[in-house]
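Table S5 (text form). Sequence records supplied for joint modeling of the two-component complex.
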Amino acid sequence: MPETTPEPAPGPTASALRVSVDLNRCQAYAQCCYAAPRHFRIEGREALYYDPAPSAADRDAIEQARIACPVQAIHVEDPERSAP
Amino acid sequence: MTDAASSAHAVVVGASLAGLRGAEALRRAGFAGRLTIVGAEPHPPYDRPPLSKHVLTGEVPAEATRLPGLLALDAEWRLGCAASGLDRASRTLRLADGTELSYDRLLVATGTRARPWPNPHEGRLGGVHTIRDRDDAASLRAALAARPRRVLIIGGGFIGCEVASACRSLDLPVTLVEPSPTPLARVLGTHLGSVVGALHESRGVDLRSGAEVEWLEDDGAGRVARAHLAGGGSVEADIVVVALGAVRNTDWLAGSGLSADPGGLDCDKRGYALDEAGRPDTRIAAAGDVARFPHPLYDGRRVALEHWGHAVEQAEHAGRLLAGHEAAAPYAALPTFWSTQGGINIKSVGLTQGADGLAIVQGSPAEGRFLALYGREGRCIAAVSVDCARWLPAYAAMIEARAPFPPIRQGTDQPGHLPVLPPGFPEKPRR
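The corresponding structure-token record, covering 515 residues in total, follows.
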């Protein structure tokens, strides 16, 4: 019986990070937009857009964004680092 | 508890947000046994909110929505293989490929599917879409990228409105047909629905409120060509998006003896699944869209909530429960959701259903940012913010405390007395 496993790292690049933001918590403080402007932006007055699969090359900026969020709404999975 | 021993087998049925976070909660709560996650779709857990927004505009590829794992799960994945039956006497889960899994603990997180167009033949015409799964979104994205002449959206709920918004962002002609007097009438009432409807019209959406699609006509070659409206008239459209809400995935529970129907799987206030006699099966819990449970904040009314935050929180509750940590208090998380459409951010806490009054307590619809508070029988029951999210936590606290409604008679940014308005919910739920 074949065991199906999740794709190891599907998406645009094999080593992409995975980001999700709890938009119930998000209050559009926009600190992520300063930390990682290529991957987070505010649309309109307070709707956060984020890139769910940023390049692993941008991990430092993404980590800065995660840490800087005043309501700690950003979750990141980095396939090349151990799970949090 | 002996089940928490390493010989126990926990099975999570459903590999979306609730299934993933529930599995993580099991592990976090110390469950050390075998863990299997069963998913009907071939994809690992992905996030659905972007599917009706930036996936449709092409900014986010559908496959980029895979959810981050928050800890190492050490799980076996059975993806692309739906659950097809449950035998509780032998504690066996049947899968669509004919195989079986025995379980000691079972988390039901099978979610929902899009409610199809009622006429199956018309629903299968080329160009007719529903949107629920990642593959649905990829297919609709491809259709929109081909620049259709007009997109017709049937149903002005949140998904219908978000799809309409994405179409306008792509500068595609779009018609939205909704039987209620305004979009979002069922959840927000017509008072706020009219504000959102006006926003979409200002962005070029051809909004047909109070109208209903009667049937879809094909072009003679198996593709949709136009929609005929009740009472006459038609809309030419080469893409039709059926956005009529969702049906809960409980068919596979038929014959299991559990109390389940298309409205959900019933749970007790702890989160255990109930059998048809109302007795809990303490090996089975449910979480997310599929779980219907008595909400303590709303006098124990049974609700099944299709909210992202609820899927996370109830799954975490259920995971702990199945790992042997029964909570001291029933699951009572305040319902919350958000929707972005037409460049605005709509956020909600609480449940608006049954509201008998509404007060604009911050800002004003005229300035485009405001917070509406909903009351019922003199208590605050829900709040909806439009580009006014930073006020929401304060009102969430009032709702949790069942504070008197209206809580304030004069707001600092409101001139004079705060009027209580009729929220404008339709007399009967549509469909």
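Note: Residues 122 and 130 of chain B are 12 Å apart (CA to CA).
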